Structure formats: C-alpha cells, structure tokens
Amino acid sequence: xxxxxxxxxxxxxxxxxxxxxxxxxxxxxxxxxxxxxxxxxxxxxxxxxxxxxxxxxxxxxxxxxxxxxxxxxxxxxxxxxxxxxxxxxxxxxxxxxxxxxxxxxxxxxxxxxxxxxxxxxxxxxxxxxxxxxxxxxxxxxxxxxxxxxxxxxxxxxxxxxxxxxxxxxxxxxxxxxxxxxxxxxxxxxxxxxxxxxxxxxxxxxxxxxxxxxxxxxxxxxxxxxxxxxxxxxxxxxxxxxxxxxxxxxxxxxxxxxxxxxxxxxxxxxxxxxxxxxxxxxxxxxxxxxxxxxxxxxxxxxxxxxxxxxxxxxxxxxxxxxxxxxxxxxx
Length: 330
Fold this sequence. Notes:
This protein is mainly alpha-helical.
C-alpha cells in the first residue's frame, strides 16, 4: 500500500490542512519511534519473537537487493513499535450505482483510489460523511505502507510477527512501489506490486530450498485467483446493471441479490478449500466499495504476470517494459 502522506503544497481548506497535519504527525511518530535493528536485537526488553523476526527481515531485504533488483538496502533497516495493530486505516468509496471508485488528489502522487489516516476515528468520520452523501464505503486497517523513497521505511510491530512468507510478500510488495510507482494510477501500482511480490516469494522459497512451502504457496495463489474470479464475475454483473438505465429501486434490489449470491459462492469456495477464511466477506453487508478495494489490487495482476513471463523473468526488463505501458484509463 503506497500512501506517502507528506505535508506538501497547496493547502486550500481547513479539511485539507487537517488531513495533512495528521499525516505529518503520524509520520513523525514513526520516525521518532524507529530504532536501528542492530540496537533492537541487543535490547533485553524486546521479545525474542520480535528479534527472531527482525533477523528474518534482514535476510528478506538482502534477497530483494541481490536477486530481485529491489532497493532492499534502503528500507526496513529500522524497527518501530507503534503500540497499535495497524499503522493506518484506509477508506475506499464508490457511488451506490457505479463500480468507479472515488478518488482523492495528493501532492506529487496525483489522484489515488483511497484515503488513509493514521487514526481510525478520522477514517470512520470521513466514512460517515460519505455514507451520508450516498456512497458505498469500506474501511480497513493497513499493516504497512511505502513512502516511495522519501523516507527509509521501518519494520513495524503491525506486521513483524507475520509468517516469514507473509513478511516476504509484504516487503517485496512495498519495495516494488519504491522501485516503480506511477502517479495517479492506483490499479497499475498495486497490480504491478502484487504480481512482482508473488513472483519474488516463489523465487525466495526456491533459493532457500523450501520446495514444500513453495508448493503450499502456489496452492494459495490458486485459491486467490478463484476468489478474484468470483469478484470479477460480480463486478461485471453489477457494472452491466448500473449501465442498464433501470429505475434505482430495481437496481437496488438486483444489486442486493448479486452481492448475496457472491457471498454464497464464497461460502462454497471455503467449503471446497476446507478450513477457515474469507470471514470478512461472509459477515455483514457487502457493497461496491468492498469490490473496488479488491479490484484495485488485482485488476492488472494477470497482465503483469504475463509481462514478466514475456521478459523471461528478467526483473530489469520487466520494470523497463512496465514503465513504458500506457496509463490506465479512468
């Protein structure tokens, strides 16, 4: 997730001032609480689990630099315990009868498909305002984000105790943003980072000789694809409904039916997979913003996977060709 919340340029309203002020304070907190990992590793007050995970992170960073052409030497060399489960909370929104996400403008970044705050209460406040205006809204906590090279991003307590595979995927994702980020093109940025992070994890597991873990990870990616396929079917169904010109009352009814069918299909998926998962999708009421949030990360994933194969897996060629791609149309 690339949020780069920096105090820059053209503060044109009280709301804008408030947003960038909280962003500056939140980033300052991270800087203030960050310590070099070498210091953390010899601090007797730090839990052994955190120390062992930080050692894992160091290996992941090294692999990113040596084998993935990612700037692993420029991020995640420090650690910060923020004392909360998420670093930011992010909001996605879409009109009641549209699959086009609401966007927000950020200095140097252009228009992006989400709004992020360092305080959950701020995010919920905006969510309430948008709901009152008729938007579908989804709010979720974020483990990590990238400042896109403006600062050296730290390891955070929010994600340090994840499994090593999840850690690797997250770090490769955020470092991909640092390697290549296109202003104002959320689908491009997230699709690129997701696809390259998944490839990075597979190469990392092969490098470590963890072939059984690689097999399990590839099975997980298949399940992800099955999940996203269901989302895509529902997205297309709703897009066609919203373009039909039917009365709003009818569209509202058909929308509810389509989203209920999606939940039923996801329950079937979970039963077939066995175990648990997808809980957040199976409880409560889904809306357009739920789908928009997922589509943002996966809409161009298949294209980038194909591009990487066409480049023979060469990372430098992949990033050069990705940079040359036309901007995603809105």
